[in-house]
Amino acid sequence: xxxxxxxxxxxxxxxxxxxxxxxxxxxxxxxxxxxxxxxxxxxxxxxxxxxxxxxxxxxxxxxxxxxxxxxxxxxxxxxxxxxxxxxxxxxxxxxxxxxxxxxxxxxxxxxxxxxxxxxxxxxxxxxxxxxxxxxxxxxxxxxxxxxxxxxxxxxxxxxxxxxxxxxxxxxxxxxxxxxxxxxxxxxxxxxxxxxxxxxxxx
Amino acid sequence: xxxxxxxxxxxxxxxxxxxxxxxxxxxxxxxxxxxxxxxxxxxxxxxxxxxxxxxxxxxxxxxxxxxxxxxxxxxxxxxxxxxxxxxxxxxxxxxxxxxxxxxxxxxxxxxxxxxxxxxxxxxxxxxxxxxxxxxxxxxxxxxxxxxxxxxxxxxxxxxxxxxxxxxxxxxxxxxxxxxxxxxxxxxxxxxxxxxxxxxxxx
Lengths: 202, 202
Known about the structure:
By secondary structure, chain A is of the alpha+beta class. Chain A has two domains: about 1-75, 3-Layer(aba) Sandwich (Glutaredoxin); about 85-200, Glutathione S-transferase Yfyf (Class Pi), Chain A, domain 2 (Up-down Bundle). Chain A is built from seven helices and four strands. A four-stranded mixed sheet of chain A has the order 2-1-3-4, with helices on one face. In chain A, a hairpin with a 5-residue loop joins strand 3 (about 55) and strand 4 (about 60-65). The mean pLDDT of chain A is about 95. At the A-B interface, helix 3, helix 4 and helix 5 of A face helix 3, helix 4 and helix 5 of B.
């Protein structure tokens, strides 16, 4: 088994943190996105849309998509559970993971892609969309502050993949000049806690 | 249990098709988006981001997010499986579902939102982003044609939630003037097959 990884990109980090929480070690191969390694024919045979991460199994089958790769490890190594344990908690974690992905991570990624000078050569930038995305991300952080006034972790009492997605999104936000305001004390409290877990260094 | 539904929107249709494939009947309540019912305080208590669908359980707990709602029913009623049956197939279906969602459904939705006159009053439209999204969706249909040259269904030999997402995306494409070209014969063959299933009428 081999994980195709990119140290500086947020999606591979989600997988690395997930594996660290599970205590699983997987051989990795670094793919340099700035060096264009993800767009080579060899890599596209593994990941047709040139996305990183990708997981190659020993029999040659390949999984792409961060959450699908996490799902595979969750099925193989259920403990500690990071995607729920029964029908409701599995659905609830999925709901929160998706909220954090679509409402926080994605607008932050869109802000970065459409406004950051370093992305100008890789992306057809539309600055106006970048700024709309910045507004969406900023408003979602405010809502997240209300959410985290009610629960310890994003999806409730237990740390889950939803926390990983949200923490990586918040860290990614720095690249897009999106910060958690000092007034968002619940997000600050949660972020300090999840960032202090050893897995956060992955 | 009650499903908050909107007949004309694509995401609730994904849940309806999923339930029809499972043979499950759930009481529904129609939420008129054009009538603004999703933005009322009463509905926001169920679905804070004003999204439809939402599933209210008998004990008052609520799930939002299409795929999370589907996950809940998949866990309660595993047969027929629409999200895989073992570690690899669950991850593989999730991978394809996400590909169809992020690479096809989302760009089609963005094209619709950012270019359709009917959305001008609901959305801060950025026409240039709509056209970039149109190009992404169109190119993904071409890639899907190559994908479906290798397999009967999107995720392999078995019909799955990935087919539901892709079929609903293709139908939604009409609202954005995105069509499957006649030359995409594999997509045409697949679309004819999945559209002929009784569930497609849901």
